[in-house]
TrEMBL record:
This is DUF58 domain-containing protein. Pfam families: CARDB (PF07705), DUF58 (PF01882). The lineage of its organism: Bacteria, Bacillati, Actinomycetota, Actinomycetes, Bifidobacteriales. Residues 353-372 are annotated as: Disordered. Residues 88-150 form the CARDB domain. Residues 223-287 form the DUF58 domain. It comes from Bifidobacterium phasiani.
Length: 419
């Protein structure tokens, strides 16, 4: 039995199908037009209509010129944009004064060469334009952009858009090529080595501290006997092995939960330099606490955070901004078991002790002046007032300690005297 296969030719396009294709092509062309291209098309149509009534050769010349430019734009914008783009930042996080390098890698994944490409990359409030020349099939090119970290901020980078169009800006095809990311410019911080003992009393119910002491509950190791050591702490078995007296050492157990509040009201600061100093103070204290393993709770402008790492905390500090009509920080929102509380305020914020409400929160009492007030709860805490250019000062008051600093370099020295 013989089977015969016959190919049936496709049915000719009907007028409706032809009109549908023409309309779809026209819609794509209109969508690819820039505002300048739409304006050129409108002027060309108007000149053509005017030429039909007046017969002026100048109007026909304008019409033909604009139509030629639009046709050239469509021809230049037409083509494959089959490329793969990658957007990376190294490093993704920097400190004020550093730099962030953004790398854009474009690979031609198509079978034909790409004549030219334009890449639009938003960086913060600006938009960078990268022009890529002819890119053969299978080849890659990389361009780098350096961002100067001049101030603390969260810098959105991307998304990446690949564009093709004509040099006159009449036609443009855009394609999303890579997702965006956020680069962080961290505030400046200073080490607070002398603050390891500040505000953390010995507590057998607390968690283990990294500081080594001579007497506690969690044994850390052994050391050689020194005159004056308590004989009850001698480890006799280890001493017999070492043939010299060895004394036990312990890891301090302390209740080290720390709460930090930042005053974000712009009326409490003389200038933005003071607010940036306050953020640097908060960042320095928070990073120190997290590196020493202290549970931390931070709040600013109504937002709170319980960071797990110093990097997460610095990322949060990068986005801090002033919030109008916000009271100075109080003890509201901090954990009750915190023995160490820091309130960072501006130089225009007045400080005095408040009273306790039935709910246990701090109450604001009206001061004799019209300056803003920070209510200090009866528990021991530290209030750090930042005043640009002021001399360092420590005042121990009955219910809190008031620290005044005028520059960040004063914080390591002044915190050693805080309780």
């Amino acid at each position: 039995m013989t089977t015969t296969t016959r190919t049936i030719p496709p049915a000719p396009d009907t007028p409706r199908r032809v009109l549908h294709r023409i309309g779809r092509t026209a819609r794509r062309a209109i969508a690819a037009m820039t505002p300048m291209g739409r304006g050129a098309a409108a002027v060309s149509a108007a000149c053509a209509a005017a030429y039909a009534f007046t017969g002026w050769a100048e109007l026909l010349a304008v019409t033909l010129t604009l139509m030629t430019l639009l046709a050239c734009g469509v021809a230049q914008a037409h083509g494959s944009t089959g490329c793969r783009a990658e957007l990376t930042a190294n490093p993704l996080r920097a400190t004020v004064g550093g730099t962030i390098t953004v790398s854009v890698t474009v690979t031609n994944t198509g079978t034909a060469a790409i004549p030219s490409l334009r890449i639009d990359l938003p960086i913060g409030a600006t938009r960078r334009r990268l022009d890529i020349a002819r890119l053969p099939s299978g080849r890659s090119t990389e361009q780098r952009i350096t961002i100067a970290a001049t101030r603390r901020a969260e810098v959105p980078v991307g998304p990446l858009t690949v564009c093709r169009g004509d040099p006159f800006g009449l036609i443009r095809h855009e394609r999303h090529a890579a997702d965006g990311m956020v680069a962080y410019v961290h505030p400046e911080i200073v080490p607070l080595d002398g603050m390891a003992r500040a505000g953390t009393g010995r507590d057998p119910e607390g968690c283990a501290h990294r500081r080594i002491v001579d007497d506690d509950f969690d044994m850390h190791g052994l050391r050689a006997y020194r005159p004056g050591d308590d004989v009850r702490r001698v480890h006799w078995l280890a001493s017999a092995r070492a043939r010299t007296l060895m004394v036990r050492q312990y890891e301090a157990a302390q209740r080290m939960s720390v709460a930090i509040d930042l005053d974000t009201n712009p009326d409490h600061y003389r200038n933005m330099r003071e607010f940036e100093l306050a953020v640097c103070v908060v960042a320095s204290i928070g990073v120190h606490c997290l590196r020493w393993g202290m549970p931390l709770s931070a709040s600013a402008g109504g937002a709170s955070l319980t960071p797990r790492s110093a990097t997460d905390f610095l990322d949060w500090c990068s986005g801090l901004a002033t919030v109008p009509d916000v009271d100075a920080p109080t003890a509201h929102g901090v954990v009750d078991e915190s023995r160490c509380r820091y309130h960072v305020i501006g130089s225009l914020a007045n400080v005095r002790s408040g009273t306790r409400t039935p709910s246990g929160r701090s109450a604001l009492a009206a001061p004799p002046s019209d300056r803003p007030v920070l209510a200090a709860p009866p528990s021991m805490q530290t209030v750090i007032r930042v005043a640009d250019g002021a001399s360092p000062d420590v005042r121990r008051l009955p219910r809190y300690t008031l620290i005044t600093i005028g520059m960040l370099a004063q914080l390591p020295i002044i915190t050693e005297t805080a309780p």
